[in-house]
């Protein structure tokens, strides 16, 4: 009878050991909130009803608290001119690893809500449950804001809104010029109509300008932080933003 080759026996033994380890690892449950949230077994988030028959009413409104596996999430909105100008979580999971998850996820969700103007925001990676709860409470706040809106706006908000373009601010890498839309005494939209471009400036501008636009809407003033790595662009943006605000009457 032919002998089994020793190398073949070693290869077979190694393969069996590796298969056993993989099987054991696949059966190990997640043991912390971060792993559980990243696992993807989360309940589906509430659907957005953007585009409802009525606009959202101005003022501050707080959505119902959404219960998640790691604690309640509750969102408060500030609305002006029919647009979300500020979003904040007044409740969020806390304690242990939840503190780190909340501190990372909530600011991103707040920014996303202002950008999207609806509850149709993407979940933050590693914070699936928190994101789902945020979206549910955000939708509740939007529903309440719609319920409080006048049945017939008559175009009043549109008549009060004004769009103003600030003076172009010259920087070392090119001009920066900001245009804002103001309604009800608040900045509802900010955009850079001029910004440095060409070479490395393209990358810096594409990274910095969206952040500066968001910051202008959130702050409602030119007192915003410079974007890291875009000091000149940030300074020019703030200068032109202040010029636009001065034209709009402060």
Automatic annotation (TrEMBL):
Residues 69-145, 172-248 form the FMN-binding domain. Pfam families: FMN_bind. Residues 33-62 are annotated as: Disordered. It comes from the Bacteria. This is FMN-binding protein. The lineage of its organism: Bacteria, Bacillati, Actinomycetota, Actinomycetes, Kitasatosporales. Gene3D superfamilies: 3.90.1010.20. Residues 33-47 have a biased composition (Low complexity). InterPro entries: FMN-bd, TAT_signal. Signal peptide: none annotated.
């Amino acid at each position: 009878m032919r002998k089994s080759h020793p190398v073949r026996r070693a290869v077979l033994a190694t393969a069996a050991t590796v298969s056993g380890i993989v099987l054991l690892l696949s059966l190990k449950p997640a043991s912390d909130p971060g792993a559980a949230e990243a696992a993807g077994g989360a309940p589906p988030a509430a659907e957005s009803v953007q585009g409802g028959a009525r606009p959202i009413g101005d003022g501050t409104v707080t959505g119902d608290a959404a219960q998640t596996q790691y604690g309640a999430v509750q969102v408060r909105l500030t609305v002006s001119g029919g647009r979300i100008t500020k979003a904040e979580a007044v409740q969020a999971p806390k304690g242990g690893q939840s503190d780190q998850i909340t501190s990372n996820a909530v600011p991103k969700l707040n920014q996303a809500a202002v950008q999207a103007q609806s509850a149709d925001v993407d979940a933050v990676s590693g914070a699936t449950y928190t994101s789902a709860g945020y979206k549910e409470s955000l939708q509740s706040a939007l529903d309440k804001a719609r319920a409080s809106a006048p049945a017939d706006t008559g175009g009043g908000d549109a008549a009060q809104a004004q769009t103003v373009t600030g003076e172009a601010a010259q920087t070392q890498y090119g001009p920066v010029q900001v245009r804002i839309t103001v309604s009800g005494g608040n900045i509802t939209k900010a955009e850079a109509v001029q910004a440095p471009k060409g070479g490395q400036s393209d990358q810096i501008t594409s990274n910095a300008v969206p952040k500066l636009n968001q910051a202008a809407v959130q702050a409602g003033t030119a007192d915003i932080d410079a974007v890291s790595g875009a000091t000149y662009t940030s300074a020019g943006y703030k200068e032109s933003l202040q010029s636009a605000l001065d034209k709009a009457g402060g």
